[in-house]
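Lab channel / #folding
Pinned by the channel admin:
"Please post every new chain as: sequence first, then the C-alpha cells as a reply. Keep commentary short and put observations after the output so the thread stays searchable."

First post following the new format, from NK:
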Amino acid sequence: MPDGEAPGWSVQDVERLRTTLGAFSDLDDPQVFRQVRVLMGRQLGEGPGPFPVPAYNDPRSQIAALVDVMDRHQDPERALRALADTLGYLRSEEAAMAELDELVEELAPSGRLPRSRLRAVAAELDALRAIVPPAVASGALDRALLPGEPSGLRGSETVSGMLLRLNDAREPAGGRAAAEGPLVLRFLAELAAALPGEPAELLRSHLVLAGRELGLAVDVRNALAARCRPAAGRVPHPPGRRVLQIRLSETSPGKQEYEVDATLFDWTDDGLRRPRKREAEQPYSLGDLQQLGHTCLIQWEDLAARLDRAHSVRVEFLLPWSLLDHPVERWLTDTQGYLLGHKYPVVIRSLDRMRQQSWHRDWQRRWQAFNHPDAPGPPEQGVGWLALEATASLDGGGHGADILRLRGREGEVRAWLDTRPDSAGLALAFAYDHRDPRRAGALREAVCEGVPFMVWRRDGGNPAELAERLREPARQRFADLPAVLRLWRRSASRDDAADMHNHLTLLWDDPHCVPPESVLTAPAPEGKA
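Reply from TO:
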C-alpha cells in the first residue's frame, strides 16, 4: 500500500483496550462474554453465529483474544465500533464505558473509511497515478475543504498518501462538516469531478459504497454526489489571497549554512491559514544557494500551481542578516528559466525581527501609522534616506530627500527615527553588506526600531535613479510597491547588468502576514498599555 500499509493498532493501543475491557464488571463471566459476541456478530452481519473468538478459561486471556481478533479483522475499526455499541447497550452505566468511548473516538472515529475500502481506493489511485498528479489532487482538496477546516497534511504526500492522512483527520462536530460528509469523502468526490470517464466512475462507485458502509444519511450522500459533478458544470471560485513564504534559516550563527523550507498560506482576514509546506532535504552552503534557486521551485511545482490559482499573490523570503542582499527575485520558477521576480511580486523579510518578540511593538506601530488613512500618498513624502557620505545626487536636482548621513555611531538611526515617528520606510543610498559594520549596523537598527519597509540597490549604483523611481506619480499608496516593483523588474532585460531594476531589493515586512507560530500581539492603544 502506498506510503506504508494502513496501520493496525499499536502495542500501546492494544494494551489500553485490554485494560479498559477488563474494567467492565462482568465481562469475565462466560455467559456475558458469549452474549457480547452474539450481539457483535449480528451487528457485523458476517454470519449466523457469534463473533468468532477462541475460547480461554482465563478471563484476561479471553479479553486479550477478543482484542487480537478485532485487530486482525478485515475492518478493525468497524469491529471495535460494534463492540462499543454492544457494551453501550448492555452496560451503558459502567464507568469503563466512558473510557471505551474515548478509545473508540481515537482509534475508530466516525467518518473514517473502513480499512478494506481505504486499501481498495488507494490501490485505484496508485493505478491512476499518470492521470492524477499531485496538482490535480491538491485542487480537489482545496475545493473539498470548508472555510477554516484543517487538512492535517504535511504537503509532501503522494495522492494515495493524501487519502490515508485525510482519512485520519478529525472531523469537526456538527455544522457544515456533518451535513456535507467526512473530509476524505468530499476529497474523493471532488477528485472524481476532476477526472474523465472510467476513472471518475470508479471513484464515484467507491464513494457510494463508502457512504453506505459508514451509514451516512441520505442527505449527506446526496451532497457528496452533487460534488461529483464534472468541474466544468460548476462555477469556479478562485481563492482570494495567497502568500508563499520561503525561509532560509542559518543552522548556527556565522556558519553560513542554511536550512530551506517553503510554506504556502491562504491569507485570510483571520491571518495565514491552511499551510502547505515543503522542506529541502539537507542544509545548503552560501555558495550552493544559487543552484538551489534554479531547482527548488521546480521540485515544489505543486506549491506554485496552488499559488497561481489565487486572485492575489506574493512571494516572501524570510532571511537572516547574512542573506538580506541575496538576489531572491532571480530564482527560477520552471525549467524554461522564467524569473521568479518577473512572475510574482517578490519581497524579502527579516527573519530575525519575526523571532525577536521585543521588537514587535514598534514594528506594529510603524505599520499602523504607515497604513493610516492619512498616511502620505506619493512615496517620496514618507521615505527617508540613509547614506554613508554626502550624496550630491540626492541633495541636488530638486529631490528634497530627508537624509541621515551615517557616521557609524550606535544609536544614530534610532535617534533620527525618534524625530520621525510616522516615517513609512527607508531607502539606502548604498548596497547592504552584512560584513560592513556601518551598513549592516544601520539596517539592523532600523529593523529593531520597527521600520516596515526598506529599498536599495544591490549594485551600489546612483541612488538618484532610485529616488526618481520612488517619486513617480502613478502609484497612489505605498501598498502598491511590491506589485509596482514587479513591473519595474519585468521592464528590464534580464541579462542587462547595468539596469538598476535587475538589482533592486525590497524589504517589505507586514506584521499581519506572519506564520501562525509567529503571530504578533497588537500593541495596546495609547493610555491603555
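NK: The longest helix spans residues 197-213.
TO: also worth noting, The radius of gyration is 30 Å.
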